[in-house]
Every structure is written in structure tokens, then in C-alpha cells.
Design goal:
There is one protein chain. The chain is an alpha/beta fold. It has 15 helices and 6 strands. The protein has a 6-stranded parallel β-sheet with strand order 3-2-4-1-5-6, sandwiched between helices. Strand 2, helix 3 and strand 3 form a beta-alpha-beta unit. Helix 13 packs antiparallel against helix 14. The longest helix has 24 residues. The two termini are 16 Å apart. 34% of the residues are buried.
Length: 325
Amino acid sequence: MADERGAMSHTRAPLLCLMGPTASGKSSAAMALAKHLPIEIVSVDSAQVYRGMDIGTAKPTAAERAAVPHHLIDLIDPAESYSAARFAADADAAIADIRARDRVPVLVGGTMLYFKALREGLDDMPSSDLAIRAEIEREAAASGWAAMHRQLAEVDPQTAARLAPLDSQRISRALEVWRGSGRTLASLQRGRAARANDARSLVAIALEPSDRSELHSHIAMRFDTMLDAGFVDEVAGLHERGDLHERMASMRCVGYRQAWDFLEGRIDQSTMRESAIAATRQLAKRQLTWLRSTPDRLVIDSLADDAIGQVLKIALDSNLQSDGW
């Protein structure tokens, strides 16, 4: 009976989410938490799911993974696809497993769509149709993505209005949904219902820098560290496999896309570095925009000297543990 009461209390414990833009110190904060709480980390990162993509995704080191169990890392080959829906299912399973072992799950990452999927659920989206996608890509190659954006605006003006004319990935998906199902992406998203899961409450901590230029400096330094660690060689190994191409989601990851262009001879190494850093800055900007729309998040200045201490205080005050711990 005590075990049953503990399990019920355990399920009701809040779920800690440690969010933030790239290079904001999320992983360091999570590792610091592990010194005070029996945590296991659930990665919320759409790039770290790929095996063999280690340096450019800033995966935790072997020592870090030995010290603190990490989940949802190295799940699939770069030739495979992964979705927000699969993440939500995998994360739910990992959370349940961690709690069943009387440990504390902490979700850590910067893929905001995954956080949203876990919190709100997903629409009943049609599965990918490779034939339709290939058709769209052929049309885009002939007429350009700006023309495809105009085409989307004719059938789904709401979705088109929030997408940049050259946002090829999202334009392609929106057109694919329309052509495959006859329904617009906007109408499917309006049908989203709130998740009715385990009465979960979230404690969302957002590490957000008070000085954008300082974050940019961290991004540049981190990419230079990746280059020194052999990032280009890592991508070269993927390039040499022969079964990967630049249109795959794995190879569109920030940094990998630019390194692939370098290996293909389209840009030089200096341009690759500049382009990758600029793309990472844009990623951080999008992440911060997502964060600002996150309800009830607790904002901590990631540049503050006591940022990790603030994270720890919130975590310890949030009753993340079951009554029996």
C-alpha cells in the first residue's frame, strides 16, 4: 500500500523542464542539479537523436553520461526520420520509467516544438508522403521557394503568413499536408486539444541571456571549439557514407548544413564558419521567440553569476520528489 501511495505521489510530482537557446548553459545547469537531486536527464534536442552526430550537436560527454543517465540520445541513424509525435511518446515512456525507479526526470534542451508537443499534444497530422514531397521539391527547383510560398498563400494563407518566403522545410510540409489530405495546416492546428495525461504540472525554467551580444560570443566560441574537436572530420565521415544527402533532416541541422556545403566545394572553410555561426544565432533568436510565448515560464538570466544557484533553488522548492524520498 505504501508503494502504491508513493507511486501516486510520484506521478503527481511536477515535471521540471530546463529550456533555453543554444549555448545558454542548460546542460551545465542540469549536471549541477544532479549533485543535489537524484535526476536523470531527458534530452529535448532534435539533433542529438542521431547516432554519429556528436560534436556538432554538443552531446554530453561519455563522462557526463556515466555520471548522470541521459535519455533520448543516439536513437536513430542520420538516414532515418524523427518527429515531434515520436518524441512525445518516447519522452512519456522515459519519464514513466525514470519515476518508476524513484528518480527525478528533468527535461533539458532547446527544441521548443518538442516541449510544446509534450505539454499540449499534437494534431492528427497526415504522415509524410515522400512522393508528394519529391514533387514539391522538383517544383521548387524549377520556380523557387518564394513561388512555392505564394502557392501556399493561395490555399493556406494563415500558415503562409507566419512563414518566411524561403523557409523551405516548413513550406514544403504545409503544401504536402494540403496536397495529401485536402486540409490546411492551420485548420489542423486549430483542432489541437490540451493533453489529458497524468495530471502533470510543469515547472518551466528558461535560461535567457540579458545580453544578446554575449550569447553571440558564446555561440562563436562554442563553434570554434567544435572545429578544434574535429567537427569537419565528423561531417566528412557522414558525407562519405553515400546514403545521406543535404535534404535530409539530419543534414539540415545547424552547422552540418554549412559543413556539407564546404565538403561539396560550394563554400570555403572561412565562409563555412561564418555561415554556421550566423545560422546558430538565427536558431537562438527563434528559440527565444518561442520561449517568450511559453506560459508560466520562470526566467533566469543565463549570464548571471548565480544562474545555476537560481535553477537549483527553484528545483528544490518545487517538490519534484515523491513523499517517500
